[in-house]
Amino acid sequence: MERKEIPYKIYLEENEMPKQWYNVRADMKNKPAPLLNPATKQPMTAQELGVVFCDELVKQELNDTDAYIDIPEEILNFYKMYRPAPLVRAYCLEKKLGTPAKIYYKFEGNNTSGSHKLNSAIAQAYYAKQQGLKGVTTETGAGQWGTALSMACSYFDLDCKVYMVKVSYEQKPFRREVMRTYGASVTPSPSETTEVGRKILAEHPGTTGSLGCAISEAVEVACSTEGYRYVLGSVLNQVLLHQSIIGLETKAAMDKYGIVPDIIIGCAGGGSNLGGLISPFMGEKLRGEKDYRFIAVEPASCPSFTRGKFAYDFCDTGMVCPLAKMYTLGSGFIPSPTHAGGLRYHGMSSVLSQLYHDGMMEAVALEQTAVFEAAEYFARVEGILPAPESSHAICAAINEAKKCIETGEEKTILFGLTGTGYFDMVAYEKFHNGQMTDYIPTDADLQIGFDGIPKFEGNEF
Amino acid sequence: MERKEIPYKIYLEENEMPKQWYNVRADMKNKPAPLLNPATKQPMTAQELGVVFCDELVKQELNDTDAYIDIPEEILNFYKMYRPAPLVRAYCLEKKLGTPAKIYYKFEGNNTSGSHKLNSAIAQAYYAKQQGLKGVTTETGAGQWGTALSMACSYFDLDCKVYMVKVSYEQKPFRREVMRTYGASVTPSPSETTEVGRKILAEHPGTTGSLGCAISEAVEVACSTEGYRYVLGSVLNQVLLHQSIIGLETKAAMDKYGIVPDIIIGCAGGGSNLGGLISPFMGEKLRGEKDYRFIAVEPASCPSFTRGKFAYDFCDTGMVCPLAKMYTLGSGFIPSPTHAGGLRYHGMSSVLSQLYHDGMMEAVALEQTAVFEAAEYFARVEGILPAPESSHAICAAINEAKKCIETGEEKTILFGLTGTGYFDMVAYEKFHNGQMTDYIPTDADLQIGFDGIPKFEGNEF
Hints:
Two copies of one chain form a homodimer. Chain A is α/β, with parallel strands linked by helices and 461 residues long. The first copy, chain A, has two domains: 36-68 and 117-230, Rossmann fold (3-Layer(aba) Sandwich); 76-114 and 240-450, 3-Layer(aba) Sandwich (Rossmann fold). Chain A is 42% helix and 16% strand. Chain A is built from 18 helices and 15 strands. Chain A has helices at 46-50, 55-62, 73-82, 91-97, 118-130, 144-156, 166-171, 173-181, 195-203, 211-224, 237-256, 272-286, 304-307, 350-357, 368-382, 388-407, 425-432, 443-451, and strands spanning 9-10, 20-22, 68-70, 87-89, 102-107, 135-140, 159-165, 185-189, 228-230, 263-267, 293-299, 309-314, 323-328, 362-366, 412-417. In chain A, the strands form four sheets. The first copy, chain A, has a seven-stranded mixed beta sheet with strand order 1-4-5-15-10-11-14, with helices on both faces. Chain A has a four-stranded parallel beta sheet with strand order 8-7-6-9, with helices on both faces. In chain A, a hairpin with an 8-residue loop joins strand 12 and strand 13 (323-328). In chain A, helix 5 (118-130) packs parallel to helix 6 (144-156), helix 6 packs parallel to helix 8 (173-181) and helix 15 crosses helix 16. Chains A and B meet through helix 3, helix 6, helix 8, helix 15 and helix 17 of A and helix 3, helix 6, helix 8, helix 15 and helix 17 of B.
């Protein structure tokens, strides 16, 4: 491989962009455990899943054998509007840190949704349109996914109903307005518009909501409205499949310049970004072709990998969704209201959970003040004001780069910069004013969530 | 020229990026009139200007002979962090409109400042640093320039004092927070921190401020503080010079694919984006090599080109700055508070004013509800949620593309998409809620501003 001088930003040419998604499950010996019907504890059939999800997406959800799946041309065309995302060499950050490490980041924030979420949103909207549906429902927390889905639905002229976690709805009116610009209807959750919402409101008056709760509402509406299905921005196998575009582009850009990462770092909430970024590299590791260190970075206040249980659990608070085997804090777990930004899901992608369980990757949990310090440092040095979620990866990458200063190792570090923080300035303001606090749940705090994980044969933990 | 298939986005390679700015004044037969000392009515000398501006920037301000000026390497390196900006072929917009026109836009919003303003901010910060200054002062309206300058100052470790028009300071707390992230101090203007601010507050208690007023404050602080100079984000010759990077990149990208625009459109407030975009094309027109139609688009509520006077006027409300010959509504003109977004400056770049006066370009004024309709239409079709300022150019481009539907002409339309609207959601919300109104000043409204334009021999209008 010829060693060319590496530019600040590597953009693939349009004709170099991936035309297939990569399905890492095909290369996993230990496949992720199937979704279970909570009533029967039997694997969900395609027919059962088809009540909630679009048919083609159900196929993708269940497909753990095909390594590559063609990206439909309409989706490729949409990708061309905001992709390829640049792979950036962080020359300025390296210099400022004085590290011998070489740092790269894949920047997914150059689109109006402000994050990588659009990669899967457009795919899910496409398949919904293909099926002749009228619209889709979903939930959103920090608002990135809801924005992405609004954009995708607008492109395909689909109706889009978003249930937005109430605390975010109130703290982020601008996100809501972006979604409205794209024609979506946005309802704060829990709401009076669904049975499960009314139940949660009755049991927990004044609750500020949770992602798990908004999921329950969105699923209920999808299942009870003719011509609608539910779509989800993370956690699911299909989402990781679509997000593999991140890793595939990254790998193509790195291969073009003969760059091989030693460490690959991504923030982890439900796992969509991390899973997408690492997929093709993980494939090489699974096939025994190469070795990489993978690091999942999660908030210390919502530490599903590092302190969760590997068990079957509900994907939602209202317990209307299937059971997924994953690292979970319990579907009743709600992160402290002091927690800023996303990455607040109680569970984790089954694919990533299995890989973590099999020792294929590591995980670290970081406290948010350290994360915001890293965010501000990064913004000043590299110019981009990062999302709080992405800043977890930045912080971990800086920590690894600092280790290289001590050891003198010239490691190549790659991290995912999933998005921008332009709609997170309330959190930045708190940080600037010294009003941001850290919160680490005690074992007793976590036990409440664990107690809610369903007990049945084969679900010991 | 070989006709290659044109991708959705054209990114120049790093080695194809311009290494010199282009100074359109060198090719103008009728040079823009010099800045005058308001006391003597004589052209400002380099020495006089040096009290306010950095020495090297004064040289650039006065240089109307050198067509090309080398971009210092440190600035080139910074440019590499967020440039080249993509030249986008608006395939989706063309299709949606059903126009035979070919539409291109140069997108300058892919950086945290959210606009093209960073192109000049980094240059001005660089020269301030080179001169050994401690810091710079400036004003900001919508906040894009202030954000850009904060980023640039942070990069060069310079202090940055921003006077932000009070109404924007209050309506855009998030912009303020972005500036704070980059370490700038932000003061709402008019303020009690300056003599001119106190004077304006005494005369107009409760005023929401204006750009002209914030300029006066920033200049006062720069001139009265050791080691500080004032910097400006638009209007000045030096700013147009730096912003020529927009047009140079655009032209290089177009030349690469054999594209020749028929119409070039840009929004115009002080003229930085429009001047930068059109400069190299205007050079060809001035040299008689090619012909293009240039269209400046301004808000009907602040119509300096279409309804202003071509005369010497103060650049600021407090009348502490030099006199510039330009299309002006009078330095006392304050746009209606119903006007959303930027492009609210009372005057216009002297370079562009001269070119307009000489019939080298056209101008149109648009009402803001039409502009926001175009903005939302564009967002849904092309994905990018545009800044209100940029949406003026979008609206005009769509109008031209619609004319091509009628005539069947396959014109090539190029416009400048200067930035994103992520910090303008209050305006979008008003638009969604039907609360946005149009305002066209009457001749009597304008007369108040005109009455304030200084009268002296040679300044008849």
